[in-house]
Automatic annotation (TrEMBL):
InterPro entries according to UniProt: SAM-dependent_MTases_sf, Trm1, tRNA_met_Trm1_C
Entry-linked PANTHER family: N 2 ,N 2 -DIMETHYLGUANOSINE TRNA METHYLTRANSFERASE, TRNA (GUANINE(26)-N(2))-DIMETHYLTRANSFERASE
GO terms for cellular component: nucleus
Family matches, as Pfam families: TRM
Classification via SUPFAM superfamilies: S-adenosyl-L-methionine-dependent methyltransferases
Catalytic reaction annotation: guanosine(26) in tRNA + 2 S-adenosyl-L-methionine = N(2)-dimethylguanosine(26) in tRNA + 2 S-adenosyl-L-homocysteine + 2 H(+)
Family (UniProt): Belongs to the class I-like SAM-binding methyltransferase superfamily. Trm1 family.
Source domain of life: Eukaryota
Protein name per Swiss-Prot or TrEMBL: tRNA (guanine(26)-N(2))-dimethyltransferase
BP-aspect Gene Ontology terms: tRNA N2-guanine methylation
Gene Ontology terms, MF aspect: tRNA (guanine(26)-N2)-dimethyltransferase activity; tRNA binding
The enzyme's E.C. designation: 2.1.1.216
Keywords linked to the UniProt accession: Methyltransferase, RNA-binding, S-adenosyl-L-methionine, Transferase, tRNA processing, tRNA-binding
Amino acid sequence: MSSLFLLTPHRTISPLSLSPLPKSLQLLPPRCQIQARSRVDAQLTTSTSESERGVEFTTGDLFYRRESASARDLAVLLSSIAQRRLGRGLRVLDAMCGCGVRSVRYLSQGGADFVWANDAFEGCRPRIFANLSSVTPRFSRDARRWVITHFHANRLFCECYLQKEFFDLIDIDSFGGDSSFLRSALCVVKIGGFLYLTSTDGRSSGGHRPSRSLASYGAYVQPMPFSNEVGLRMLIGGAMREASALGYHISPVFSYYSYHGPVFRVMLKLGKGKDDDISQYGFIGHCNKCGHSQTFSWDELGQISCPCGNAKVLVSGPLWTGPLHSAEYVGEMLELAREWGWAYSNDKSDDLDRLLNVMIDECDPQLPPGYFKVDEIAKRAKLNSPPISTLIHALKMEGYAASRSHVEPNAIKTNCPMASCIDFAMKIRT
Ligand SMILES: C[S@@+](CC[C@H](N)C(=O)[O-])C[C@H]1O[C@@H](n2cnc3c(N)ncnc32)[C@H](O)[C@@H]1O
């Protein structure tokens, strides 16, 4: 029996006995394990120094993607806001921490007073240990600031649940999809706390394997021109379903698609009690003939057809069909990013001001799910693409809701039907 001694910030020693993992549970997906094993020796001897927003850490040869820095920035901004709102330090569980960069940032920037850094791969330990130690000693003011473990994330969530260890924020940064961790993770998020989910499963959101998306997230997803937004909605919808089964409800705080990967991330807030309102958990239809998209509720399932007369509408769902973000939280994140000097960057892909402003625009409740690519409008109008800002302005002048999409830079979100968008594009040109 190995014994893991846990100290929570407010308690003295509470021994949590964890028996050694059976071999089968220790296993990472085989591909990851082979890669990880081959790196173990190298990562102990090499030490690549990195820096993110002024925080220094080393990665060795462990998994680390600089391109995910914006996703980490967003999580740190949110956790700091949560800490300010609660008026106390947060308990954070970084369930798949790699070299520990997130744990380091939650501790030093995100208002965490305790971080549990876990990664199933034991070879990460020296690196995580060094990185966390460089931020803060393991103990400060008689309280433990961090713990490192190497468990399969599902086992860790279950053990924490049994020991009544709950967290204000759980970050699951997995390879592939993370639907298999949803239910057990939700069991250890505090009510009012946050769950940060990741999926790199672009094939399911692209509609290339509807049986897989159905199995993982309960959504039958077909190919749609805005499949990357569908990927975010599939993740939120899947978490909604799991939360509801446990007697909770969730709401999206922000949703973030990044083409590096691609990676789909959603930050969800957990609330007590089931939400019986399913008006934002429905279906999205797309007509390939005229390019029109629309949402359908469960009651409307029997009468799906496109206003253009086409009865062969592609339907995906059930998915989350409400706003992708909370305007209130994202607005606060923008203010904080400006306060900390994180907002502006010469590199467009790192520019948080730009990203968060587009996210705020996307929160307009009049905007339906999906987007129209400007090239698609232009192709149907037999024109060169109009400037995106001119098209958005023209739509707004006519009383339509319209915004850019953070998911697809060359697209507009609008409640104007595709046919009228084509007319507007033609008017702009004449
Ligand atoms: C995408 S990397 C994490 C990167 C890190 N969060 C960051 O921001 O740099 C995924 C990590 O999850 C670990 N992992 C994979 N499957 C796991 C599981 N079932 N339980 C715990 N850790 C796992 C891998 O060893 C790997 O380090």
